[in-house]
Predict the 3D structure of the following.
Amino acid sequence: MKRVLMVFYLLSVFSFLGTMIANGEEKSVPTLEEVVVTATRYEQKVEKIPAMVTVLDKDEIEASGAQSIPELLQFLGGITVRDLNGNGNNQVVDMGGFGESADRHVVVLINGRRVNPIDQSGIRWTSIPIENVEKIEILHGSGSVLYGDNAIGGVINIITKRIKEDQRVDFKLLGGSLETGKADIEIGFNKKGSGIQMGFCQFTTDGYRENSQASRENFYLMLKHKTEGPISLSFRMDSAYADYELPGSLTEAQMNQDRRQSITPNDGGEDEDISLSVSIEADFEEKGLFNITLNRRDEDRRSEIISWNSIMDFNIITHGLVFQYILDSFIHDHENRLTAGIDIYGVDYEANRNSGQGIYDHSRDTFAGYIQEEFNLSDSLVLNSGIRYESVTTKLGGVVGGNEVGVKFDDGEWAWNVGLAYSFIKDSKIYGRIFRSFRYPVVDEYMLLFTGAVNTNLKQETAIGYEIGLKFLKDKIRGDLRAYILDVSDEIAWNNVTFQNENLQDTRHTGVELNLNIRPFNILGIYGGIGYLNAEFDKGPNEGKRIPLVPEWKGNLGINIFPIKGLRIKTQYSFVGKRYFGNDYGNTQKEMESYDTLDIYLSYRLKNIEFFINGKNIFNEKYSDYGFYSSWVNSFNYYPMPEATFLGGINMVF
């Protein structure tokens, strides 16, 4: 019945559009030359990059109504998102179809700074408030030459808001369903290239389920100074605090009885995160551009899983030093860009379980060097090639059950990339590339936190990928198409028989992604994305079986309507197909049901004030985007997602 209502709703929207378009005028979409930084680590035209790069700008971010970055990314055809708690505090982004280990196959950056942890805890998305984001660049597919470990499936670069010109104050206030509230304020001043900007955001929600309350506070400070010479200096501080409850999973019987209940009423956690970054950039023009960035990140986390008699305290300190050199020159009258750099990271990781039952003292030191050439074979054909070597030293130590543990791993891996991009018209391209990527095991894949057992035979994953694609931008149409094959060797997964992480089997990930945006009239925009992905085991006892939690099909369709000046009406339909439950590597059990949702966003801007309302899942689809199968008790376990929710608010700029 809900799907019938969705179809009726969409037909009504198109009927309304037909009436408006009859009086409308066709209008080509004015476009600026699109420049991104993620794919090359410095500004480059998209048509010169042999890869698919998606850019989500400030307007798209605000109109999405998303309250977190993963919630925004789920609207792209080739990306799936899972939310274990339904309150945004435990979200996983999957690029390339890696299922349960998805968050360890994507590099996440904030202004180019890595934030991937060295354990299985995943990205702390609460430390990256969406209110502070200017745009997001997504590199689909490998980025290992420039970013190293984890970049097998893709790279997500979150670019925060820049210091505004002159003086400016932004204020945002919203509230709505589930006792959700948010307040955000930003203040900035800038004069002649030097300035200061700071912001504070507070968010609270009761959550959809019992024991799913969450709150977070974020603060940031930016300083920038441009000297009269070639040097620019910048400083940034980010502070985040999150306090959240963990509702846990429900069996099928429990979910049918009451999908909002929790059987883990005392589970929860809190995170505190402070990061500092100092950057010096020197642009000597024909002699090249130098950039040095130093950063430090301090994390304190507490996890109280009372249902499993486990309380864990973590303290993680990360130091980073990044050096980069870029030289634009000509070789025999052909444009050439050389990018070279060194990445140095050191991580000290301490964990304490149940006040001394297990004490862990780990560290990881990373040293990497890379070089990339972008050589213009002609005005419209670019050859991109690069290579990286990354050495990692991982030390695992601790005392578990009175027994002292100490192990050291010294590893090194190569990554490389060769690609061609041909720009057949301005801002459009066809491309192809071949690449090699890698991923190192994280510390708690090597060593189990509950027992202290270490798998000394665990190896890093490696991957070879083949990719072709098309980008088209002309007048009223923009499209991005990508097809790829990714062969992964020694993929790491949990073995329910041996109770450890192992290099179980090789896998093959074959996929096609399409994102399309059409603006046929001044009052109308239509966009959508679709992704097909066949991720399966390529060898071993599960040969030919699909990787759990990876849907074959995913898609979305959206409509933007601008009926009068200042008014925007946006509606979006999303679909996620069937996939096997987590742990079901043999595909012997039933699949998780597919689901579809419909969202709506309305806003009206009057000079410097904007009023908005956002409805998510407005037809009350009852679904779970994550679940796992327990063979011990023959049980299917679900994490129910919220039904219809509505938020409204005001945004003011002074």
Q: What stands out?
A: The helical segments are 2-21, 58-64, 69-73, 144-147, 252-257, 443-446.
